[in-house]
Design goal:
It is a single chain. With 415 residues, the chain is α/β, with parallel strands linked by helices. It folds into 3 domains: 117 residues, Glutaredoxin; 121 residues, Rossmann fold; 86 residues. Helices cover 45% and strands 19% of the residues. The strands form 3 sheets. It has a 5-stranded mixed β-sheet with strand order 3-2-1-4-5. It has a 5-stranded mixed β-sheet with strand order 7-6-8-9-10, sandwiched between helices. Strands 11-12 form a two-stranded antiparallel ribbon. Strand 9 and strand 10 form a beta hairpin. Helix 7 crosses helix 9 and helix 11 runs antiparallel to helix 13. The longest helix is centred in the last third of the chain and has 39 residues. The N terminus and C terminus are likely disordered.
Length: 415
């Protein structure tokens, strides 16, 4: 009795230590310095149109062989808006040391948290490419795929010609052009030659109507040739500057934005162009490697035990039914035999004429077979019913969601 409180205290202490150990093992790790990859921040910066991210390790020969090509790619397209980020992952011997070229940013991911967040599963090198609108153009690719995607993107880079309506002052149109040029997300065509090319494209459309009720696909990449229509809209005592960006090829509206007309023209244009560019981005945020749906085949579904349980269940139910039928048959025979014996030898005690041993043995055998058939059939049928009840339903192949998006706190977006 004297030692009981101490024993209880020791048990409580051991339980607390065990709980603390579990929390330490399974609690999410905090982001360490140099382990933050924020693609959204880079894409939001002025002048940035594309962000490429290369995961590498110094022990990975293909990774290091690709570095001169990454250097050349960055030098070729940096002025047009390409930014290159490298992530040194699971490479303690490399120590995140300097590369043969200077990327726009370097992330030190020695413990592999960032790589795990993108479910690389040890695949190196792995490269990703995003557009400023948030679309993922290359996922878990190589330098060759990124080179082709970057070249194709800038060949089809959105070119915008600003077309003000008569009530919009030319100086305001100039401010809008300048603001879009400063943001650097689209190429604003200002020269006579450039505008002539757009006019030719417009004529090729045979007078296509630009109807704001005809909406383009939301979030898709801005097409090569676009028309930005500026207009002044009055509503009551207030006036608004309205921008509508149209696809020259289809005449559909890509995005529109309005800001209240104010005396500060720069503030008005800054506000309305910011709204317009924001609407051109993906509505659900930055796109990450998408969750994919894996179709389970019939053989995969058989692994869950459903197939053999259903087969065994129906076979067992059939066997149980057969036993029940046999038992019922012998029960009828046993009753008939018993009735005959009772009728024939009912005066056995007085006359001394009694049933022979062979006749009694036959009646006992029929009764035993009846009991075995009835009780055994009931038991076997119950087992078959259990198999069928517990077996997974035999549904058609269903989609099994496999998330491959980011889980790391430094990675933000939708997937």
């Amino acid at each position: 009795m004297v030692r009981e409180p101490r024993t209880s205290a020791l048990r409580s202490l051991r339980a607390a230590l065990a709980l603390a150990a579990l929390l330490f093992v399974f609690a999410p790790k905090a982001a360490n310095a140099g382990e933050n990859l924020n693609v959204q921040d880079w894409l939001a910066r002025p002048g940035v149109r594309l962000v490429a991210v290369e995961f590498y390790a110094t022990w990975c020969k293909p990774c290091m062989d690709a570095m001169p090509r990454w250097k050349a790619l960055r030098e070729k397209y940096a002025a047009q808006g390409l930014r290159v980020i490298v992530v040194n992952t699971q490479d303690p011997d490399g120590g995140c040391r300097a590369l043969p070229f200077v990327p726009d940013d370097s992330v030190c991911d020695l413990e592999g948290h960032v790589a795990d967040s993108l479910r690389l599963q040890g695949k190196l090198p792995s490269a990703f490419l995003w557009s400023w609108q948030g679309n993922l153009l290359v996922s878990k690719g190589h330098i060759e795929e990124v080179e082709k995607a970057v070249e194709a993107y800038f060949q089809a880079a959105p070119r915008v010609v600003v077309e003000p309506s008569p009530e919009v002052d030319a100086s305001l149109a100039t401010l809008v052009r300048d603001r879009l040029a400063d943001d650097g997300k689209v190429q604003v065509l200002a020269s006579a030659e450039e505008q002539a090319a757009i006019e030719a494209a417009k004529k090729a459309q045979l007078g296509a109507r630009y109807d704001e009720r005809l909406q383009c696909e939301i979030g898709k990449e801005v097409p090569p040739n676009t028309l930005l229509k500026m207009s002044r809209v009055s509503q009551g005592q207030s006036a608004y500057l309205n921008l509508g960006l149209y696809d020259l090829a289809g005449g559909c509206l890509l995005a529109s934005a309005s800001s209240e007309w104010s005396a500060d023209a720069r503030a008005t244009t800054r506000d309305v162009t910011g709204k317009l560019l924001a609407k051109l981005k993906r509505p659900d945020g930055l796109q990450w490697p998408t969750s994919r749906v894996v179709e389970r085949s019939a053989s995969d579904r058989a692994d869950d035990g459903g197939a053999w349980k259903r087969g065994a269940g129906w076979w067992t139910l059939g066997t149980g039914a057969a036993l029940l039928a046999t038992g019922a048959t012998f029960a009828v025979l046993a009753k008939a035999t018993g009735d005959d014996l009772n009728a024939t030898y009912k005066d056995c005690a007085t006359t001394g004429r009694c049933a022979r041993k062979e006749e009694l043995d036959e009646a006992d055998r029929q009764s035993l077979l009846a009991n075995v058939g009835l009780f055994g059939g009931a038991a076997v049928s119950a087992i078959g019913a259990y198999f069928l009840i517990t077996a997974p339903s035999a549904e058609p192949a269903r989609g099994m969601r496999v998330d491959v998006g980011p889980s790391y706190v430094g990675l933000r977006g939708s997937f």
